[in-house]
Amino acid sequence: MMILVRRRTLSSLDNDIQALKRDVKKLEQPITSDRLARMAITRRELAPRSVSGPKIARRAITLDKLAPSVVNHITSDVVQLISAGALSAATVASQASDAVGPQGPMGLQGPIGPTGPQGPQGLQGLQGPQGPTGMAGVTGPTGPTGAQGLQGLQGIEGPIGMSGPSGIVDIRFAGSNLPVPFIIIQGSGDATAELILPPITLLANQVVKLDAFANINFIIVQNYSVDSTISRNQGAIVTTDHAVMIQNQDQPFFPQAAVTTFLTWVDNPGPGTYNYSFTITGSANGITDASINSRGLTAMVITVT
User: Residue 121: left (phi > 0), alpha (psi -120 to 50), or beta?
Assistant: First the structure.
């Protein structure tokens, strides 16, 4: 008996035998119409795969070239395969060409299989075009006040402003309510009182306004005379006032008399420092008593334009 096998090494024969066993096992499964439809072999498919005599002759290995143990092993396996209904490659090819019937109708589509594992992540796509600008966000809260900056340079001095209106710059006053009595000798008497202001300094366009008054009282008097004078620096008389009463010797005496003097003057001596004074001098005849009472001198420094 001659067995045709493929030309392979001895080490691969066991693999071929195992493959034949698996094929036989498949043949033992029930043959259904669905399996036949999927596994149907057409003549067109068998034509290029058919096993012809020349193909077998080129790949045939005679038994005399194999070792006796290998021959026995192959023979035993082949007998078992034949008894199980297996066909040789040549027999299968011959019967297949004769047993294939017309192709049956396509079977129903099977159910969708389970989802396969997720494939690897693809490459990053190209960057899309820039989208439109979004709406402006709500204004945030005001931040804390920053540190104060350095002080800037001093600016250029501005022009001199216009002169202000005329006004009082300074006021000086001297006065007294202490009576100065007349010194009376044999019905005649006199008295003198003087008020002196502190020094006054005048600038350009400044003047000093002087006001003075004095009250003199007489008791039982026939004749009197009261002189009052405002002076500058004790030597220059600025203004004077003279009050007098004269009667004849045979005229009756006045039981009392009162004299009040008023002096007002605006002095403009020019820039400088000045001392102003007010002097009251009184004399009388046929008197019992007399005195220089309240008196005062006021000076106001005024700027004029």
Answer: beta
